């Protein structure tokens, strides 16, 4: 069987996610993923090798054609497998304090945060809760590009809590689109009861 994934123009991690889904959809055969940058080429190649698939790469007019040959089941590989258990991870809470990821370019930071939130919907186990404080509350209100991803997480059992004081400070409480409004007690309680925390 043959499948083609045209991932040109897609931001990380979408080329990897679409390739993984295409490989899961066939028993044996070939998947050709087309990407237009070196980073995507390397990431897709690493995925294929991690699944013990043979890889051949050709470059043509600035695009990389990555042929991945599958001759075995990969159903038991958990990485980014959306078919596996999506039970929230009871010991992981993520505190999001801004609407961008990393330092430096604000524009790039927003792209990275969007990619991070989307990727959370595609990997398992899911976190127990996402806590939004300070500038992070801009991600849960009207106009945010990650509302649908956050709703997806909430539907699958992830608790979404936004700081009420922060929403009031930015005068956006009436624009809340996903999750509930919490207070510092809720935030501290979630962080204290979590075995693992991530702060962004």
UniProtKB/TrEMBL annotation:
- Can you tell me where the transmembrane regions are? none
What Gene3D superfamilies does the record point to? TusA-like domain
One short Pfam family name for this protein? Answer: TusA
- Known InterPro entries for this protein? DsrEFH-like (IPR027396), Se_metab_YedF (IPR019870), TusA-like (IPR001455), TusA-like_sf (IPR036868)
Q: Which residues form the UPF0033 domain?
A: 5-29
Q: Which domain of life is it from?
A: Bacteria
Give the record's family classification: Belongs to the sulfur carrier protein TusA family.
Q: What is this protein called?
A: Selenium metabolism protein YedF
Question: Taxonomy-wise, where does this protein's organism fall, top ranks first?
Answer: Bacteria, Bacillati, Bacillota, Clostridia, Peptostreptococcales
């Amino acid at each position: 069987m043959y499948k083609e994934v045209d991932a040109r123009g897609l931001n990380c991690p979408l080329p990897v996610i679409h390739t993984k889904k295409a490989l899961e959809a066939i028993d044996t055969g070939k998947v050709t993923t087309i990407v237009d940058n070196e980073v995507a080429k390397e990431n897709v190649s690493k995925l294929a090798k991690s699944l013990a698939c043979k890889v051949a790469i050709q470059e043509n007019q600035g695009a990389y054609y990555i042929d991945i040959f599958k001759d075995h089941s990969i159903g038991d590989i958990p990485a980014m497998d959306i078919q596996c258990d999506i039970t929230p991870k009871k010991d992981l809470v993520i505190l999001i304090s801004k609407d961008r990821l990393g330092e430096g370019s604000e524009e790039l930071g927003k792209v990275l945060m969007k990619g991070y939130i989307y990727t959370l919907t595609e990997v398992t186990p899911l976190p127990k809760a996402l806590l939004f404080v300070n500038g992070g509350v801009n991600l849960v209100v009207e106009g945010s590009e990650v509302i649908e991803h956050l709703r997806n997480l909430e539907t699958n059992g992830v608790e979404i809590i936004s700081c009420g004081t922060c929403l009031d400070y930015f005068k956006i409480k009436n624009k809340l689109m996903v999750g509930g409004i919490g207070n510092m007690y809720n935030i501290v309680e979630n962080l204290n009861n979590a075995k693992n925390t991530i702060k962004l």
